[in-house]
Amino acid sequence: MHTNMLQELMKQEHGCHGGEGFIHVFRAFSRQGSPVQVDFIDFVIIPTGATIGRHRHGDNREWYVIINGHCEMLFGNQRVPVKPWDVLVNPPSGEHALYNNSGQDVTLVVFQVSKDGDSEH
């Protein structure tokens, strides 16, 4: 019998960065105790109507890789439609958000790389 181990490992998170609804997330990697500059790697599912709220990080880059589904990404004050296999890079201190206003779940990978080893999330 085949089971989706990743979904079994995911936890529900409500109001991610002040967003709406629940998302499902599994942190596959955390920099804690590691010398690399990748702070984290998250696998995320955003159900219809859920969002990752408008926020910004410090002096680092956060990458979103859309695996499945369509949604909108906010960069500053501009909403950009995104689709599967789009790669979105949030610049240092760049304000951003993600809105799933489609009729299906959005699946993505999010990872953050810090400048000079400084970590913030």
Overall description:
The protein has one helix at residues 5-9; strands at residues 11-14, 22-30, 38-46, 51-55, 60-68, 71-75, 78-82, 87-90, 96-99, 106-114. By secondary structure, it is mainly β. The chain has a single domain (5-117), classed as Jelly Rolls (Sandwich). A six-stranded antiparallel β-sheet has the order 1-2-3-10-5-8. It has a four-stranded antiparallel β-sheet with strand order 4-9-6-7, with no helix packed on it. A hairpin with a 2-residue loop joins strand 6 and strand 7 (78-82). It is globular. The mean pLDDT is 84.
Compute the CA-based radius of gyration: 14 Å
Percent in helix: under 10%
Number of helices: 1
Q: How would you sum up the global shape? A: globular
Instruction: Write down the CATH class.
Output: Mainly Beta
Q: From N to C, what is the helix and strand string?
A: HEEEEEEEEEE
Q: Tell me the strand order in the biggest sheet.
A: 1-2-3-10-5-8
CATH architecture: Sandwich
Main structural class: mainly beta
- Assembly level: single chain
Mean pLDDT: 84
In this structure, how is the largest beta sheet organized? 6 strands, antiparallel
Q: Low-confidence parts, pLDDT < 50 over ≥5 residues?
A: none
> What's the structural domain tally?
1
Count all strands and give the number. Answer: 10
Task: Examine the coordinates and then state which fold CATH places here, giving the name of the CATH topology.
Answer: Jelly Rolls
N/C terminus separation: 38 Å
Write out the CATH superfamily name. Jelly Rolls
Q: What share of the residues does DSSP label as strand, in percent?
A: over 45%
